[in-house]
């Protein structure tokens, strides 16, 4: 069989792994959108937005719903993919939400693109119009999704079986175990997806995977230790006290609507019930977050035992008296005129789009505002620049100095840190594992992780480049 890496190579987004078996049967493990190098030209199969013939892909296996793992599935359907997309039931529900949001963004881009196409002097819309899909394409693709329960071995062909293993990180997220027979020999491959953390709010701990022959492992935090998730309540309480009580200001938290926002709202709910939260308004400014909350509530049986008990006792994981959901854009913008201390949680987490941008622009010059970054921000994004190098922000024709306090915490990061990754890889015997591929990490993180693993006896390590193939 041949494994080709078409995404998440020496970078964090765009997961896409192309596996062709000896009999010609072809799978994609994840089909994600590249959020980091979207402007760079990529090698394409003639007439395709993919570097391969999409119509020859037989099956897609999806580790989880995040758009950098699922975001190009509708493009497959547009290019005559006719197979099934297998994932867990919560992943299916969240993928529908995320893909429809992506389609909405694409529809706006297409409208602007066609409006300005023949006008001189107009700013070009970023991205490749050939890759933009709309709601119809999402609906078409969803008809080919099929939900699969965790730890249920499914027969894809007589020589190919797949099992989805719980890994935390996000509701429904999985490692994917493949068992493949070729020439009378069975081989096992494990695709990590994104590895979660122990004791993360709401989610179950990652399950121990079996011994395999080939491991494809993410490396997002391959050189970094996080603060313990056990500190999430204390960490958030401390920041709120400093940002909203000691200085009666506002706390703005950029957070992805699916996953991160649920962890934060659940933690705030627990603080509220323990009388540890000041009586200030909390605004969840994201319609998608509200819909995600409903999916988390619906699939509560997939959450950890503590969360299930909490829901049974309090009826809701997220809703409490201080919390208001903001649905309309005009109400979101009106928050700029709310002068009392408050907390605003809005998307997106890397500040690359969404309502968070106008909150940042409205408050960047406010010395009584704290902006708390709570997750990974990729290089080249507005969020990364704000954290590391921006001294001022251009709003319209004005250059506004940054007076707000910029803070960061990793306590809510959904990605496992170095210790979590070592624990995951450590389930594999160095003497039995034939090859270990490191993906989904920036180059420095991967290099450091590779060095650490080498010192622990793992020698057959590959760091693939985009488009590189390996015979297994």
From TrEMBL:
InterPro entries, per the entry: Beta_Casp, MBL, Metallo-B-lactamas, RibonucZ/Hydroxyglut_hydro, RMMBL
Sequence ranges assigned to domain Beta-Casp in this UniProt record: 261-386
A Pfam family: RMMBL
Keywords from the UniProt entry: Hydrolase
GO molecular function, one term: hydrolase activity
PANTHER family given in the database record: CLEAVAGE AND POLYADENYLATION SPECIFICITY FACTOR FAMILY MEMBER, INTEGRATOR COMPLEX SUBUNIT 11
Protein name: MBL fold metallo-hydrolase
Annotated organism of origin: Rapidithrix thailandica
């Amino acid at each position: 069989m041949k494994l080709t890496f078409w995404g998440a190579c020496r970078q964090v987004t765009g997961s896409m792994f192309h596996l062709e078996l000896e009999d010609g049967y072809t799978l994609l493990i994840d089909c994600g959108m590249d959020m980091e190098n979207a402007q760079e030209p990529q090698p394409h199969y003639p007439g395709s937005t993919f570097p391969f013939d999409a119509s020859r892909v037989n099956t897609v296996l999806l580790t989880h719903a995040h758009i950098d793992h699922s975001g190009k599935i509708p493009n497959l359907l547009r290019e005559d993919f006719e197979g099934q997309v297998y994932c867990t039931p919560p992943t299916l529900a969240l993928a529908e939400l995320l893909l429809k949001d992506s389609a909405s963004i694409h529809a706006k881009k297409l409208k602007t693109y066609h409006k300005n196409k023949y006008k001189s002097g107009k700013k070009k819309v970023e991205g490749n119009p050939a890759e933009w899909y709309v709601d119809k394409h999402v609906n078409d693709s969803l008809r080919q999704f099929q939900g699969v329960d965790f730890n249920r071995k499914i027969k894809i062909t007589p020589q190919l079986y797949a099992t989805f293993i719980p890994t935390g990180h996000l509701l429904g997220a999985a490692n994917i175990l493949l068992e493949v027979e070729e020439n009378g020999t069975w081989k096992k491959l494990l695709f990590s997806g994104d590895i979660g953390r122990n004791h993360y709010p709401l989610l179950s701990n990652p399950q121990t995977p079996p011994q395999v022959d080939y491991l494809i492992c993410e490396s997002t935090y391959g050189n970094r230790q996080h603060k313990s998730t056990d500190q999430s309540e204390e960490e958030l309480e401390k920041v709120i006290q400093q940002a909203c009580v000691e200085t009666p200001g506002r706390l703005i938290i950029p957070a992805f609507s699916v996953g991160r926002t649920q962890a934060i709202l659940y933690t705030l709910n627990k603080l509220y019930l323990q009388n540890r939260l000041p009586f200030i308004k909390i605004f969840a400014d994201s319609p998608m977050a509200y819909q995600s909350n409903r999916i988390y509530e619906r699939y509560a049986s997939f959450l950890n035992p503590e969360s299930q008990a909490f829901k049974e006792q309090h009826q809701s994981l997220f809703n409490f008296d201080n919390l208001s959901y903001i649905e309309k854009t005009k109400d979101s913008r009106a928050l700029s005129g709310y002068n009392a201390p408050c907390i605003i949680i809005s998307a997106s987490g890397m500040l690359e789009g969404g309502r968070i941008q106008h909150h940042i622009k409205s408050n960047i010059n406010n010395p009584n505002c704290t902006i708390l970054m709570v997750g990974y921000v990729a290089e080249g994004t507005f969020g990364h620049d704000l954290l590391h190098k921006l001294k001022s922000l251009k709003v319209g024709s004005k250059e506004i100095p940054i007076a707000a306090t910029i803070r960061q915490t990793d306590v809510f990061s959904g990605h496992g840190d170095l210790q979590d990754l070592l624990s995951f890889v450590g389930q594999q015997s160095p003497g039995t594992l034939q090859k270990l591929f490191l993906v989904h990490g920036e180059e420095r993180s991967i290099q450091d992780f590779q060095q650490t693993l080498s010192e622990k006896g793992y020698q057959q390590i590959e760091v693939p480049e985009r488009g590189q193939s390996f015979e297994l």
